[in-house]
Amino acid sequence: MKTLAKWGAVVPLVLGLLAFSQPVRAQAAADIVGIWMPSEGTSYIKIFKEKGKDKFHGKIVWLKEPNDETGSPKKDPKGAPILNMLNLRDFVFVDGKWTEGTIYDPKSGNTYYCTIEMANPDKLEVRGSIDSFGLVGRTDTWVRMKNM
After folding, report:
1. What pLDDT is recorded for position 148?
2. According to a count of CB atoms within 10 Å of the terminal CB, is the N or C end of the chain lower?
3. Is the CA virtual torsion 77, 79, 83, 88 positive or negative?
4. Whole-angstrom Cα distance, residue 107 to residue 38?
5. Which residues share a beta bridge with 92?
6. Shortest CA distance to 106 belongs to which of 36, 31, 15, 45?
7. Three-class SS of residue 122?
8. What is the CATH code for 28-144?
9. What is the C-alpha to C-alpha distance for residues 4 and 9, in angstroms, rounded to an integer?
């Protein structure tokens, strides 16, 4: 009976805390739209929704060092300029995350499977992987750039 008495005091306390806690906001597909900085801090990626479709893409809109040692715009291993390059492609919003997309690494010239989850309104967890299941890869945290 002492155990029941303890629970009798705890249950109203827990219910009271739940009543005053902030509700969890469901994410919407467009929440990803904006300008984001990967953890390296050397670029900004603008994520946008493709007009007329439910697909999201991202392009590199700023580089900390936009030019190489000769003063020419930096290029990827294939010779394409990195600035304004589309490096996120074809993401769709499913069950609270953005999936089915790819991420291109302009340093290596490789394209990887990718998923994106929003940790909070100003933080993304971007996972690139060599396999479609996301088992072999790495996750990077991107932060939203304000006032851009």
Report:
1. 62
2. N
3. negative
4. 14
5. 99
6. 45
7. coil
8. 2.40.128.520
9. 9
> Where are the alpha helices (H) located in the chain, listed in sequence order?
2-20
Q: Which residues contact 37 (CB under 8 A, 6 or more apart)?
A: 43, 44, 45, 142, 143, 145
Model confidence over 3-53: pLDDT tens digits?
A: 444 445 444 433 343 333 344 456 799 999 999 999 999 999 999 999 999
CB 38 within 8 A of CB 44: no
Stated pTM of the model: 0.80
The letter for the amino acid at 19 is A
What's the full length of the chain, in residues? 148
Contact between residue 47 and residue 32 where contact means Cβ atoms under 8 Å apart: yes
Residues 90 and 113: their CA atoms lie apart, in Å, by 11
